[in-house]
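Ticket #4471: structure output looks truncated?

Reporter: J.K.
Steps to reproduce: submitted the chain below (260 residues) through the standard prediction queue, then opened the result file.
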Amino acid sequence: MTQATPDPLAAPRRRRWPWVLVALLVVVGALVALDLLGRQWAEAAIADRVADALDASDAQVEVEIGGGPLLLQLATGRLAQVELAVDDLEVGPFTGELDVVAEGVPLDLDAATTSITARYLIPEAALENVSSQLTGVPLASIALDEPEIVVSGSVTVLAASIPFGLGIEPDALDGALAFRVTSLRIANQTLPVEDAVGDPVFGSLAEALLQQQSVCVADQLPAALELSGADVVGDRVVLEFDASGEAVGSDRFSTRGSCT
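Returned output as attached by the reporter:
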């Protein structure tokens, strides 16, 4: 029987595969590293731009680009999702946290963004700074009890101390944070809010208690962020903003809004 003669080219051909695999791993590693470096640079650039827009150069702006590999997103001309968080941001009399989620952000800064929503979270303690806007008399306590801001105190009438309590719901009104009384208690009597001022006994006190004033927040933020809602959620008053359809490079992100 004749033995088959080994093909001298077979072995070298098989030995090429490890080198191909190594080369492939190098390319993949380079792409991953490039994506990581590009993501870090992009997130830092976005953080700087946001800090400038908020006039908060000292604020800590955290940025996270989601939506998968950055290089693939760049190829489409849009970032799928960008999330921002700014701690200890001062907005008028408040200091709170701003969270922003942007979706469909074009690389062309003059093109419209698909969606931009924001939430500004005001802690309970910060409401002390607007106690005079919550009611027309001094307060002893301010607490959050979803869905209300609950305030209480007492007034002296003819040497007698009369306790009172109010349930107040926040609202968004033409760029301002407004306050609407939903429940009213004077002494041990609960009064219908709509009839309180006409009450023959407590009418004058009720009138003072129902002197709420709004707090403008639009003039503290970019005009593009339009105040769309306000609610008590847990231990925070949450202001909601919307800037969907705005171009991030527009003047409305570099100028302040106003209350009408």
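Triage note (M.O.): checked the attachment and the full token line is present. The chain has two domains: 36-123+232-253, 126-216.
Status: closed, working as intended.
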